[in-house]
TrEMBL record:
It comes from Thalassospira profundimaris. The lineage of its organism: Bacteria, Pseudomonadati, Pseudomonadota, Alphaproteobacteria, Rhodospirillales. InterPro entries: LysR_HTH_N, LysR_subst-bd, WH-like_DNA-bd_sf, WH_DNA-bd_sf. Residues 8-65 form the HTH lysR-type domain. The keyword Chloroplast does not apply. This is HTH lysR-type domain-containing protein. One of its GO terms (biological process) is positive regulation of gene expression. Belongs to the LysR transcriptional regulatory family.
Length: 301
């Protein structure tokens, strides 16, 4: 590559074209939003890189040389190309022609995922956004099948070749009937809760795995006569059957049932919340913006 091409930059080319078109360094500086000394320096550097005299000063006016005419003529297609590139970049930022398919576990769908979607659509208003709910295992299957771009999961998730981004952490809480003696307490232990009949959540789920380990360390077990495979089913079952249960804080905070109350556990039993994608997942910018928004929302709660 010649010395001229090593010394050329897009900004120097833009400065040259502005000065050429306006016959004025000050006018070019105003158009570019730069100071006059900065424009003069870029112009000198451009001339030095070319080894040509591109402008001459005559009676206080800048005049283009024949060499400047030739360079400007050849550079116009570059300027047009830069304009088209800038337009394409702006279109991509707004989501024009783009798509993002997100699948989340249900416990974040009442508030956090919709709010993250709203934040994303403000930044990329023309993005086609597809949102669905499913368990982590199903999300992983669809992710590898190329049917979704981003999964939002919680707890312990088996790792293969996925990219995991930690978004935040949640905690477990107790749910007890309003007429249960524990309902008057501000904080309870797992041992206190498991004295009473329980509605369990399956240990196969990521949250269930976290709870199962906490119980095992205390010599307790999930041996209730009622087991729900979905966390969303636990609160209504607990209310109807007048049983206690352990759920995540997000499910607890979205309770519509009036016959049960949520109580903090004395043990800080927490689980991770992840954004999961593949290296080959499309629309990386949308994935990043959505993940960043969800992380911020979880941090602010």
């Amino acid at each position: 590559m010649g010395g001229f091409m090593r010394g050329i930059t897009l900004q120097r080319l833009q400065v040259f074209c502005e000065v050429y078109e306006r016959n004025s360094i000050s006018a070019a500086a105003r158009a570019l939003g730069l100071s006059q000394p900065t424009v003069s320096k870029h112009l000198r550097d451009f001339e030095a890189a070319s080894g040509l005299t591109l402008f001459v000063l005559e009676r206080g006016r800048i005049l283009q040389t024949a060499d400047a005419d030739a360079i400007y003529s050849e550079s116009r297609f570059l300027q047009d190309g830069i304009g088209q590139l800038e337009g394409r970049i702006e279109a991509l930022k707004k989501g024009v022609g783009g798509k993002l398919s997100v699948m989340s576990i249900g416990l974040l769908m009442n508030h956090f995922v919709p709010q993250a979607c709203a934040s994303l659509m403000q930044k990329m208003p023309q993005l086609r956004l597809i949102v669905d709910i499913s368990k982590s295992a199903h999300q992983l299957e669809l992710l590898h099948a190329g049917l979704i771009d981003l999964g939002i999961m919680a707890g312990r998730v088996p790792v293969r070749d996925e990219e995991f981004t930690l978004l935040g952490r949640g905690k477990l809480m107790a749910v007890v009937p309003r007429d249960n003696p524990l309902a008057q307490k501000r904080q309870v232990t797992l041992e206190q809760v498991f004295v009473y009949p329980m509605v369990d959540t399956t240990a196969r789920g990521p949250i269930g795995n976290v709870l199962e380990e906490a119980l095992r360390l205390r010599g307790l077990g999930m041996a209730g006569a009622v087991t729900c495979n979905s966390l969303e089913a636990v609160p209504p079952m607990a209310q109807t059957l007048k049983r206690c249960a352990i759920v995540d804080e997000f499910t607890a905070r979205s309770l519509q049932q009036t016959g049960i109350v949520c109580i903090d556990l004395d043990a800080d039993i927490r689980f991770d919340i992840w954004a999961v994608s593949l290296p080959s997942s499309g629309n990386r910018n949308a994935i990043r913006l959505f993940s960043d928004a969800l992380r911020k929302l979880l941090a602010e709660r």
